[in-house]
Amino acid sequence: MGKDTRTDTMQAQPHTADTHDLIRVHGARENNLKNVSVVLPKRRLTVFTGVSGSGKSSLVFSTIAAESQRMINETYSTFVQGFMPTLARPDVDVLEGLTTAIIVDQERMGANPRSTVGTATDANAMLRILFSRLGQPHIGSSQAFSFNVASASGAGAMTTEKGGRTVKEARSFSITGGMCPRCEGRGNVSDFDLTALYDADKSLNEGALTIPGYSMDGWYGRIFRGCGFFDADKPIAEFTKRQLDDLLYKEPTKVKVEGVNVTYEGLIPKIQKSFLSKDREAMQPHIRAFVDRAITFQTCPDCEGTRLSAEARSSKIDGVNIADVCAMQINDLAEWVRGLDEPSVAPLLKSLGETLDSFVEIGLGYLSLDRPAGTLSGGEAQRTKLIRHLGSSLTDVTYVFDEPTIGLHPHDIARMNDLLLQLRDKGNTVLVVEHKPEAIAIADHVVDLGPRAGTEGGEIVFEGTVDELRSSGTLTGKHLDDRASVKPAVRTSAGALEVRGADTHNLQGVDVDIPLGVLCVVTGVAGSGKSSLINGSVSGRDGVVSIDQGAIKGSRRSNPATYTGLLDPIRKAFAKANDVKPGLFSANSEGACPNCNGAGVVYSDLGMMAGVATPCEVCEGKRFMAEVLDYKFGGKDISEVLGMSVAQAEEFFGSGDGKIPAAHKILARLADVGLGYVKIGQPLTTLSGGERQRLKLATHMGEKGEVYILDEPTTGLHLADVENLLGLLDRLVDSGKSVIVIEHHQAVMAHADWIIDLGPGAGHDGGRVVFEGTPAELVAARSTLTGEHLAAYVAS
Fold it and tell me: Dihedral sign, CA of 200, 204, 206, 207?
């Protein structure tokens, strides 16, 4: 047999190992999926589309990615699995052809105030090693440059048992850390306004404490009364200096209260541990309001905000210390690293340079390594997580992305598309949940879920190519080529918010007048200074309601009714109608089923294996005691009310026997933002990212304010829902409010009355206002990147 013949035979009969080129999902039922079956091609880019809440994340993240990660975890020993998060098997009949899944989601990074861009990636670790090797004077190992390691030393005698004899040895130790001792590596110091902690004219028993959660009714009250350090019936103004010091500053001390050993601790160290250990953005709204009111933060005078000790800052390479390096813009830092020629650390310099170049390549070159991770937007956080995968040598991996274009200007979306295609072309399977037409356009395969959201979704309504999607007649197909036109007439402003000399982050002394009484859209490439301008100079003013991108917090016990405050008027109405206490109608309080504690399910912890949740046999998943369900309001019990959708509840509480105006008002806002299909008692953990964003928007719309700031409200919104959002913004403006929107979506820009465009670039290449005017003027001028893309959008 000749060589050519053998080659032909090999091509005609592929090896069995090469035939596994599909991922098969059969019978998926996670969340709202309705027995979904789908076949996905491997080593291709598949985009999942559909309205928010249609089941995209349930299929991609909760089924395909979750099962891949669970099966990888099972390859470890049971001992190791005991230290890993336990994952239950998704509710699916068959999953075949899975490969290792790497999830790059849009969760905001770091609720820890010590986390920075540098610590969240490998860049800081490599810089610390670099300075420990090349820095002069030499001060110690890499931990001497870490602001998370404190310097410590000690000496003493240690007794050990050796060969049956007791031996005493003198031991000493010394740790050289880089933490600034004044601010403990935080970069700022806090000062407390004592008048915001307590009312000095009252005693503790009279409710002097004004700190959230510090009630005299629970254990705190018993400890304060029984600790013996002060009289709980005496007004705080009459405390001696010692008593006031014990109340405020006393270090943790063991005391016996009512025969129980407990730890007493002063208010300020307790607040520092419970509240200030969290990033501000991760706090609940009432805790954040208290912290803003009671605590002022100032840059640490000792380290000047660098978080590092004087010793760590004294060691330099070419006259630059590690704090200076971390403060550089990353694209400048990459140049600095390339300029170092040291053969002794060549592999380190190469790896560090590649990491920094990845930042630049992905469009984050405008950041600095000392930027707190909690201040990154959702899009920036997602791209930061992507960095560690860009130079990876792995192939045949499944990369799963959750809306990677979030926070990206149209100019930057092409760059993100290139990165996704690069990952695919290395032989990887790329699964993307996406709404933007520019990102859908590059797909090899499209899976459209729907037809609607919630219980009306959870089905595959289309599979095929992008061109086939356009002619498919599905909701996504119909709206894929939607293009908003510039408004022929715009509203005129009724005054202006003046911003003068704004210099937060990269802003270069910006002076701008933000018009009031209109829809004003602030645009610009990622990192141009949009959020710095609005959040730094407008958010804190009186009458301004700010709705940011921060994820809403909530456990499986939280639901739209508890989050929005809807449950309060409902509980009061039930209590009044039945002459009982409102607490009976809360599954987290007195009315909870005693068997499942109001969870509706009973959890069995199986150690290193996934726990099992079974519906509670006593309450049958209704979460309440049987006697509570005997109480009715408008002919319904509390579990039936919580099982209603927003639309059903709006009708029920709007008229007739079930009329509750306060509840109806909240439900109308939820319907306004397109959440009519969501059940009011549905756990928050089952809502998609887009649904949570709109839930947050509906909640803030109830606040009293004249100016509303919305940070990328189109996040997670389907093309069909953007139109509804524009209608909502119009209604807000027509009701006399001023609306400022930070946005990249061209449909929102075209719909604006006034546009403020920042740029021209990102980081130190941005921070200036490059255009102010109407959308029509921006399109006509085409003088900025935004103008060019908006002109192309409205013309196409």
Answer: positive
| Calculated CA dihedral for residues 700, 701, 707, 708, nearest 10 degrees | 70
3 state SS of 481: coil
Reduced to 3 states (helix: H, G, I; strand: E, B; else coil), residue 609 is: coil
End-to-end CA distance of the chain: 59
- Single-letter amino acid code for the residue at 789: H
| Residue 106 backbone phi and psi in degrees, to 5 | -105, 20
Could you give the CA distance from residue 354 to residue 371 in angstroms, rounded to a whole number? 20
Taking a C-beta distance cutoff of 8 angstroms, is the pair 290, 212 a contact?
yes
pLDDT tens-digit series, residues 584-616: 998 888 899 999 988 888 877 766 566 677 889
Give the model's confidence band at 222: pLDDT under 50 very low, under 70 low, under 90 confident, else very high. confident
Distance CA 332, CA 37 (A): 49
- Which pTM does this prediction carry? 0.82
Alpha-carbon span 650 to 653, nearest angstrom? 5
d(CA 306, CA 740): 33
Measured at the alpha carbon of residue 371, what is the angle toward residues 410 and 527, in degrees to the nearest 5?
A: 20
In angstroms, rounded to a whole number, what is the distance separating the alpha carbons of residues 220 and 233?
15
What type of residue sits at position 112?
N
Nearest-angstrom CA–CA distance, 704 and 34: 41
Token pair 């700031």: residue: 709
Q: Is 676 left (phi over 0), alpha (psi -120 to 50) or beta?
A: alpha
DSSP states of 523-563: EESTTSSHHHHHHHHTTTSTTEEEE-SPPPP--TT--HHHH
Task: Say what angle helices 785-795 and 410-425 make with each other, to 10 degrees.
Answer: 80
Give the start-end residues of each E strand in 80-196: 92-96, 101-104, 152-162, 165-175, 188-192
Please check whether residue 718 is in contact with residue 475, taking contact to mean a CB–CB distance below 8 angstroms: yes
